[in-house]
Design brief:
mainly alpha
Length: 73
């Protein structure tokens, strides 16, 4: 029997272009924002090198083509 995970609802504001690009990529890869957030939170909590990288990011504002280019390189 699988334990039911309790979830909380939250609201966040995202860069509109980046989110639009994410939705396109998410459809292509069958991946959604909830999965991304849950995995990113897990990595943040359990992996100190990942946490350090996140804290070192200065520019988190990508525009559409910049975001896609950064992912595909």
């Amino acid at each position: 029997m699988t334990k039911k995970i309790q979830r909380t609802t939250t609201t966040i504001k995202l860069n509109e272009e980046a989110y639009s690009d994410f939705k396109i990529m998410a459809i292509k890869t069958k991946f959604n924002l909830q999965e991304l957030v849950e995995r990113a939170m897990y990595m943040y909590l359990t992996d100190t090198s990942y946490r350090y990288k996140i804290h070192q990011l200065i520019n988190t504002e990508y525009t559409g083509s910049d975001l896609i280019n950064s992912i595909t390189k």
